[in-house]
Amino acid sequence: MEEIMSYPISRPLASQIVDAVSDVCEKNINFITPDGEIIASTDSSRIGTYHEIGRRAAQSGTLMEIPQDSLYPGTKAGINLPVYHNGELLAIIGISGDPKEVSKYAHLAERITRLLVCESEGNLHLRDLEQKRGYLIQKLLKGAPITPEDLETLPSDLNLELQTPSRILLIQLGHQFPQTGIPAVEPEIYHLFRSLELTLYCFQYPREYLAILPEPKLTNCRETLSHFGEKHKGSLCMGIGKCTSPQQLMHSYQTCQIALKSAQLSGSSCVFFDQLYLELLLSDVSSDLQQEYFSRTVSHLSSEDRELLLVYYEENMSLVAVCERLYLHKNTLQYRLNRIRKVTGLNPRDFEDAVILYLGLKLSPVPS
Prior knowledge:
Arc Repressor Mutant, subunit A, 10 strands, 3 domains, 5-stranded antiparallel β-sheet, Alpha-Beta Plaits, Beta-Lactamase, 15 helices, 5-stranded mixed β-sheet
């Protein structure tokens, strides 16, 4: 069974958290450890019992709903929310009741838990750890040398192997997330980092999460990163930079930003710098010039014709393949290609004109 690293919470503090959350939402509250044990509850009979969904929520790192009582061992209807702080799992907060009704209390319960933990422990350990992570990462991104003294200040599990090639992983949230407060997706991002066994990561204001990804872990990470990106497509995008030595991570960060920009332009959820070709040239083109080129080429085409043109080039200009993919009659496709030629003055079938049109498509704004 996967071991889940967590920040230890005393039973008295757990009871204090349960009472505080219950006072606000007037519901039965359970404080569940990552192992699934209820160590504090408004229902004293449940203290010391096992909570199956609490354990699963800790493993998945996501909020889990239970629609009815006794659906799983030791559970009642409600929600179970993993609470993280600076990437460390604090506990699972269970709120009993109709999930549709009690879900509105989830992030309030999360904030209360964090606040009481910080007050009780003085936030010394967590703040110190966060500062050390951030300090080391910023030195690496600026190309500043890492001294033995820098490494000695870090806990052993955060130690950086200076001989291990690594990449920068950057996750940028969409503008639907507010710049203030804690984004709802943050626990899932930290759970992603932990599931990939990444130890050096930080938050960058206003809406970015950055991690150092050692190259030996990349093979096992690709599928997980792509799956995470697809799961949250439209709400965030991810860029992964080129592989460099830790001392050259500033270059990986620069290429990571190019990958991220490409993801934003193309509407992709996850882009590796190594996958880019044409985008390497376009990344240095100013936004004004990009807009000018787009205006001269495909801006007057409808979104449907742009989509058709993109499929046409993806299918290597095969009329048969495009018709099969878009369920079009050949005559209809020919008519629309001729219409595109009239609107743009460029022939989609001609190689040179096709290159011009394709670049225009690559520079098309991503629909919101």
